[in-house]
Structures are given as C-alpha cells and as structure tokens.
Amino acid sequence: MTLPTAQPYPFTFPPERTALVIIDMQRDFIEPGGFGEALGNDVAPLAALVPHVRRLLDGCRAAGLTIIHTREAHEPDLSDCPPAKRLRGASDLRIGDTGPMGRILVKGEPGNAIVDALTPLPDEIVIDKPGKGAFYATPLSKILADRGITHLLFAGVTTEVCVQTTMREANDRGFECLLVEDATESYFPAFKQATLEMVRAQGAIVGWTAAVDEVVGALAFQRSP
Ligand code: C5J
C-alpha cells in the first residue's frame, strides 16, 4: 500500500507488517491537573487532538493493524525515575507528587490512564515506559520482532518530546516510520511544525509524514477497492 502524497515522497507499507503506535494519550498530558499542566502548559490543544487520533485508531483497527499504546509511567516507589528527570519542572508539582488526578506520572493513578475515547481494546498492546522514548527499558523491540513488524505509524503527544524520541529510536533500529501530521500535537505549535519538517528533511532522514485522511483512506480502499 502506498500513500502518494506523503512527504517527502510516497510512503509504501505492508499493513500486515505495520503497527500504529499511539504515544502517551494520557489524562496526565491532556486534562487539567496532570503533568502537562504542572509543567506550565495549556492542555487545551492536546484535548482537541483526541477525535483525530480516534479516527486514525478506528481506521487502523478496521484494517487489522497491530495497535500499540504507550504510557509514560513510573513505579510508585519512583525507582525507575532518575533525579535528573524528577527534579525538573516549571511548577511545584513534580513526578510522584499528588495532584488533582493522583500522583503525577505514577502507574495506576487516575491521571496516568489513557483518555476514555482511546481506551485500548483487550487485544491491543500497552507499553509502560519510564523514559520519553518507548524503546528504552521496555519490551517494545521484542514485541515488534515477534510480530514481524517492519513499519510504524506514529500518533500521540507530545510531538517533539515522546513522539519524536520514539520515532528516532525506531528509525535507528531499522523501522520505516511515518508520523501522522494531524494525529500528533504539542503544547508549542512551532515545535510541532519544526518536528514535522525535521523528520522528513534530507530525504526522510527520520521518516515520512502524512495526514490522517490519507492513511485511513488508503486502508479503507484496500479493504473495498
Ligand atoms: C513529555 C511526552 N512531554 N509524552 N512527555 O514530557 O511527550
């Protein structure tokens, strides 16, 4: 299957060897009172993203793609959160502190859950990750290898932090990667735009980009041409 208007040039992927990776669509980043707001951000643009990711998720589910959700999540004793990560921030609330949605970025807390509209189905994979990238200190590499996955479609938040970090990790591991432009968001519009441009620069040095409609349309056409 080919997406002819992907940038910087058409992107070809085999659906049976492709996974959709949805990064960190958690209440902690998307709803008021979580980690995103504790870092000093307005979370409204990320909340507006949810229906776009849902449209992409529905299309990929219908086409039978492997679906992977990630959560940025730490152990309750914070043994997997180095001080270099815990102690930085733009407000008094730090990872592990108690906020309006429970302990910030801690596994099992209400704020750490994926937003209701994107709740993983029982057969979908959920990766808890202590870092920004989804490959660091997680079983993701093995899961993808076991399923014969070669191509990855990326969505989620935030574009320039966990999404870009994971896409770069994947690119270095030999995956063909595409970032879905309107299924990712940042607290900083300029950072999102810069990320889209830098990943596809220099002949797709990190990967490709394309719109939700293009991905979903191509997958639907494959099912009923
Ligand atoms: C951040 C993320 N921005 N999921 N995490 O700290 O991008």
From TrEMBL:
List the InterPro entries hit by this protein, alphabetically: Isochorismatase-like_dom (IPR000868), Isochorismatase-like_hydrls (IPR050272), Isochorismatase-like_sf (IPR036380)
| SUPFAM superfamilies, per the entry | Isochorismatase-like hydrolases
Q: Which residues form the signal peptide?
A: none
One annotated GO molecular function is: hydrolase activity
Which residues are in the Isochorismatase-like domain?
A: 18-207
**UniProt entry keywords in alphabetical sequence:** Hydrolase
Name this polypeptide is given? Cysteine hydrolase
Q: Which species is this UniProt entry from?
A: Skermanella stibiiresistens SB22
